[in-house]
Specification:
Elements lengths: L1 H11 L6 E6 L2 E6 L10 H17 L2 E5 L4 E3 L4 H9 L8 H13 L3 E6 L2 E3 L1 H8 L2 E5 L3 E3 L12 H9 L1 H10 L3 E2 H7 L4 E3 L2 H12 L4 H14 L2 H17 L2 H13 L11
Parallel strand pairs: 2-3, 3-5, 4-6, 5-7, 6-8, 7-10
Antiparallel strand pairs: 1-2, 8-9
Helix pairs in contact: 1-2, 2-4, 3-12, 4-5, 4-11, 5-6, 6-7, 6-11
Length: about 270
């Protein structure tokens, strides 16, 4: 009880721009909340999520990660990248910090549950795959759109491969098309889904909240020791991310998409 009260005080004293947080005893509900930007990821979001998870290390047994009803998270903030490209200054996500945030979700001393509704795309899949348990609505769609712009989900893939295997992650990356909740469940990305995901979440929490903080901490530490793919893959993931996001041609494709809504294969209007 003392831990949950302390967590509540620490979190409520903070003012957040990109997230909403509420505490229910030893459960922390962390909601990505950038409705004006389609719930995309920027550096402020990474920073604020990391701050909350740091508090949760000591005090929370469960962290429930949520988005908006229509979009969980749609990946990198292309508008931010476009402004940086056109004004010739560096304005991109910090891939190292984002990777470390997903590591916090994957290896923290709490159970992480991704409660996914609406669309999850690109970097949003990183948040999903980093969590211990993934629950979603029946109508949820999952996609990796990066290759359409000459990019790749470099930082997402280690987490996705750990969750659903190399072959399925490879196929999902190449195809770039949305995957249904049913298909994602068959592939192992989603653990359970139903029409009323709120009820599904409630049933899982009723069971998981019985576990002790000490037991969770020890178990997560042991599981992380058994599989070190996430730590081992970080240098290569960051190197590949830097390569594709430093390519002017890729950045130009992003800027064009933001301004016109046209994908790279669609022809320019020369009239």
């Amino acid at each position: 009880l003392f831990r949950s009260i302390r967590m509540d005080i620490l979190i409520k004293t903070k003012k957040y721009e990109t997230i909403q947080v509420r505490i229910d005893e030893e459960i922390c509900y962390l909601q990505i909340h950038r409705p004006e930007a389609n719930n995309t990821i920027n550096n402020r979001l990474i920073e604020e999520c990391g701050q909350v998870l740091k508090v949760c290390e000591e005090s929370a047994k469960i962290v429930v990660l949520e988005g908006l009803p229509e979009v969980f998270c749609f990946g990198a903030d292309f508008q931010m990248i476009q402004k940086g490209f056109e004004n010739e200054y560096e304005q991109e996500l910090n891939p190292g910090s984002l990777y470390d945030l997903w590591l916090q979700l994957a290896s923290g001393s709490y159970i992480t549950i991704a409660h996914v509704r609406g669309k999850a795309n690109a970097g949003g899949i990183g948040f999903v795959a980093a969590c211990d348990v993934v629950l979603c609505e029946e109508k949820t769609k999952f996609s990796l759109s990066e290759l359409l712009f000459g990019l790749m989900p470099a930082c997402v893939l280690p987490f996705l491969i750990r969750k659903m295997g190399f072959s399925r992650a490879h196929y999902m990356t190449l195809m770039t098309q949305p995957v249904s909740a049913k298909q994602a469940h068959m592939w192992g990305l989603v653990d359970a889904f139903e029409e009323n995901s709120e009820n599904l979440l409630r049933k899982h929490l009723l069971r998981l909240r019985r576990l002790s903080k000490t037991g969770i901490t020890r178990y997560k530490r042991y599981m992380n020791d058994l599989n070190d793919i996430l730590i081992a893959s970080k240098p290569k993931a960051l190197e590949a991310n830097k390569e594709v996001f430093s390519d002017p041609d890729n950045l130009e494709k992003i800027a064009r998409f933001v301004k016109t809504g046209k994908f790279p294969w669609e022809e320019e209007d020369h009239l």
